[in-house]
Amino acid sequence: MTYDQLLTLDAIIKAGSFKAAAERLHKSQPSISVAVKKLEEEFQIQIFSRAEYRPKLTETGKAFYEKARLALFHMQSLNSFGEELAMGIESNVHVGMDALCPGEKLYCPLKMFFDDYPATTLHLQMDVISGTLEKLEKGEIQIGIMPIHHHNLDLQQYDSFPIGEVTMMPVIHKNHLENIDLSIHELKKIPQLIIPSTGSDRSITYGVLEGGNHWKVTDMAMKQEMISSGLGWGGLPFHKIQNELESGELVMIDMEPLIKRTSTIHIVRNKLRPLGPVSTQLWEKLKEVKF
């Protein structure tokens, strides 16, 4: 049994077919079939049922795959650890931040940290919903700062640590309320401003009023400006609009299904992607941030 054979088995399960696994691993389809056949012959077991058009694990295959996943995880973790040991000081560190995060609580700690590493360039990226997690998975960022409540986070693959909370509130400008009684029916006539996910599936959204008038914008600052100018309504982080709520310029919408919700913000890292010495120190420093 080889590491490559286990990778092949994992790719077949995740991709759903031998052909898709071959494309994923940049191998020929016959070589994928041979890898599985050698595994079955070595242990005298049948991993996949031959009665199905698409590869389906037998009961024996399911048990074998569970152990194979653990072996792959430990091998990949060991590989990452070896790469971390071999790394010198990184010239670049990439950090991803969800648009919900209070930047004012994070920018100063980041500046103070990188003052001690003048040879390292920080690349700070802003994303929405699934964008940060996808970049972690692809290795495009080393650390993500994000809510994780709407993600099925694989705790075997990711480390996470809570650093604060953010409350999202559906709000509307007071001018909209001068001639109407606030109701779901009336809200559907007013544009709801939405920021689509920056992940691969841009249809993922949260807190969207079905059947309403939807305008899509690209970032939180634009959304806030438009809502504050009376051009629509939508969810905004409380820390960004506290003054406008207190002055009465913005009014919170408090009716089902539109209610405020609080999310815990975590720092997240992919265990299967190595962190260099600077990234490792940054991870520990960010654990000290609280809001």
From TrEMBL:
Belongs to the LysR transcriptional regulatory family. Pfam families: HTH_1 (PF00126), LysR_substrate (PF03466). Residues 1-58 form the HTH lysR-type domain. This is HTH lysR-type domain-containing protein. The keyword Cell division does not apply. It comes from the Bacteria. SUPFAM superfamilies: Periplasmic binding protein-like II, Winged helix' DNA-binding domain. Keywords: DNA-binding, Transcription, Transcription regulation.
